[in-house]
Amino acid sequence: MPEAVPEAVINELDGLRALARSLVHGDADADDLLQDTAVAALEHPPEHWPDRPVRAWIQAVVRNRWRMDRRGDARRRAREHAVALAAAGPAGASAGASACEALDRARSLERLAAALVALDEPYRTAVIRRYLDGETAAQIARALGVPPGTVRWRLKTGLGRLRAALDHTAPRWQRALILGPSPLALAPLAGATVKTKTSIAFVVMLILLLGVAGIVWRARDHAAPPPAAPAAPRDVAIAPRPSPPRSAAVAMPAIRDPLPGQGRATVEPSDAAGGVIAGRVINWSTGGGVGNADLTFTSDAGASTIRTHDDGGFELAPPAPGRFVLSAIAAPGFLPYAPELLHSTVHVVLAAHQTVRGLTVFLFPALDYHGTVVDAHGAAVAGARVRLLGTPAGEQVIDRPETEWTSDRDGRFTFHAADDAVLEAALGVLRGWARLDGNVAITKQLTIALGDAAARDQTITGRAIDATGAPVADALVRATPADAGPTRSTAFATTGADGGFTLIDLDHLSYNLATEAPDHAPATLEAVPGGTRGVTLTLDAGLPLAGTVVDGDARPAPSYTLLVFRRTGAARDLVVARSIVEPRGQFSVHVPAGDYELVASASGWAPSAPTHAAAGATDVQLTLSTGATLRGTVVASDDGTPIGYARIMREAVGGGASAQPSNAGTVTRADGTFELTGLPAGPVSITIGAGEFHPKIEAGMTASDGATLGPVTIALTRLAAGEQPTIELVGVGIALAADADALVVQRVIAGGGAEAAGIVVGDHVTAVDGAPVAPLGVDGAVAKIRGVAGTTVAITLRRGDQTVQLVVQRRKLKA
Q1: With 25 labelled, which of 44, 713, 807, 811 sits at a CA distance of 20 to 30 A?
Q2: What confidence tens digit (pLDDT) does each residue in 426-474 have?
Q3: Is there a contact between 628 and 707 (Cβ–Cβ < 8 Å)?
């Protein structure tokens, strides 16, 4: 074969990705096609080389390879021939290879085998079936009963973890053998002849570990600097570490000031050509660093997985700047952050020679919850099948924890799940459901009562299309119960190549469908009954909504969460929630035509004031403010002992991914002390929660920029044995929901000032202390209603055709 052919092929393959994607669906299938093309091209170079142009020839090769049956023996034989050809080449292992070279080959294969054995599930199974058994992603998906996108994500993540293990545990001379500077350097691993499918698979997997998605024969650039923070090697077996209770005073690494979730991100010059982001993964419950957590970032160049140090610190330093998405985070003993592929809301933009430092990412402990299945009389039910139906956020779609259990002879089972997860228990024709709500999160006890109920076996099917009628692939479809009953669950589906989707495990009631896809504006369709067929969801390009977020010192904010609401009177419907890392503080999203309200929040700063903008505006500026700092101590009311690791947060509607929420708050130290920064100017109300205690809302304070409030002492009431938690607060005793230009009273709490003043369900609150509620929204109105027990607040009501003004006393309540 002419020596110039491989290099020419390599140069052309990258440009053929668009052609490959037009022939097959998805990056993974395109990678398969390009891989097969590379093998065929290197096996059978063009005749009359170099007179014949490479591009036209290799385009023909791509098309021909696509037409072939890539699932059969022909593809396996082609790979075997390609590797044998490489093994016989001048840079390969010759018949006179030294004993040292043979030993090097054996050691390299041994290291790869060990890394594969140590690879976590479900990644190990996906990699073995794909590269050792020769199955396609579609075949694996059918066999495992998961979406093809899930398999592709597992393959990318698995290869990234294998690459990290080989990179960081081998000496440089071994890395050169395993990953080294040309494809023919892999020949020492293959030997002069290759006879088995397994041997072929090991070598092909090594080729894929070069790290360039789809371009399997491209040389690794050894001139690139090594990662700034090498990850620790993974042992062959890792035992999950039990997570401490949220209120337990356990030994943790020293918590540096500022407290977790309170530090400000900064930008500084860097020598890194591709830019750097540096941060820390921390435990939501304790604020301690999470070591050995794997973060997977994806970009057009593929997936990169990095591992945190013992203190939770990490750095991403790619060879070139670009746009990345934090696709997944996983750590032993924690719930994974793994939304559907392509639909993470944590976006990162890296700029050359700039480092964004101080990024905080959260993981939630996989706490042991104890469930009990009972019958209508409260007796334990053994042998019931329990399964997880899903969570509203859908953040464990790709990498799910265990999702099915069976109750033992006492009706009990132990499970892990995210907040607000819905579980179903069934035995014969009897069924029941329960939600992991705030009470369960505190007591760790969940009861599912069986009864005579219809199965949730309905589906909603349909297609997502764009404005021209063309199918939209890889769109995420979310079905949210229109009537948010306590045990109804949210369902998710991803569209296929034809735009089709199927939402499962639904009841007969109505659902609101929301659809999102890259480079499209979100689309919604309301009140779709379970069982509906042929739904059409139309997504268009929408209009841009772009601008800049600056901090209180008028500098670009390098890390923040952007919330975009569609505002209708007092109602705020969240349209976009995105966490953004961008050194220049810039953002750009696509939204349907209309008027919006934008809010930005960032760790260590008070959120920006709500800013109004119309779709199409590209010069929106959101300004964070310094805000106030609240200092205090959380103690037990019965004996005054400090409560460590209690969570302190602003009372406000949140948003964004759990890994980077817009309202993270902080946790108390082991001695119960805390500082909560970034409180916006105006009335202050905060929520305090800790395991084994009743939660509390504390109010009656007023913030201003730069002010320090407190110190305050907040006493929590300990839960009695078997007691259900209630929220202790000061207020008037009404539950409100937005309704056009007013807030409708949905519930009146017994013993509250509202009941004494004569407020009833169905009244519409139009003003609080003379301030109209439409501009305030629910959060603003509630903040004004909160206060000190014994004081009063003026509430203006609309009751039928009448306007009623009442003076209502604030009282201590339990809700």
Answers
A1: 44
A2: 999 999 999 998 888 888 999 999 999 999 999 999 999 999 999 999 8
A3: yes
| 55: enclosing H helix or E strand | helix 54-67
Any bridge partners for residue 511, and if so which?
481, 528
| Dihedral angle over CA of 504, 510, 514, 515, nearest 10 | 40
Question: pLDDT, tens digit, for every residue of 721-737?
Answer: 888 889 999 989 998 88
Tell me the C-alpha distance between 6 and 23, whole Å.
24
State how far the Cα of 399 lies from the Cα of 419, in Å rounded to an integer. Answer: 16
DSSP symbol at 469:
S
Both tokens of 489, joined, read 């669950």
Instruction: Please check whether residue 657 is in contact with residue 337, taking contact to mean a CB–CB distance below 8 angstroms.
Output: yes
Hey, which residues does 581 pair with through a beta bridge?
348, 559
Q: Cis omega (within 30 of 0) on the bond before 226? A: no
Mean pLDDT on 676-701: 91
Q: Which residue has the tokens 């990850």?
A: 231
Q: How far apart are CA 172 and CA 146, in angstroms?
A: 39
Contact 66, 24 (CB under 8 A): yes
pTM comes to: 0.70
Q: Point out which residues pair with 485 in neighbouring strands.
A: none
In 197-348, which residue ranges form alpha helices assigned H by DSSP? 197-208
- pLDDT score recorded for residue 65: 57
Is the peptide bond preceding residue 711 cis, with omega within 30 degrees of 0?
yes
CA angle 760, 763, 765 (to 5 degrees): 120
Query: Which residues make Cβ contacts (< 8 Å) with residue 141, sequence separation at least 6?
Result: 147, 148, 150, 151
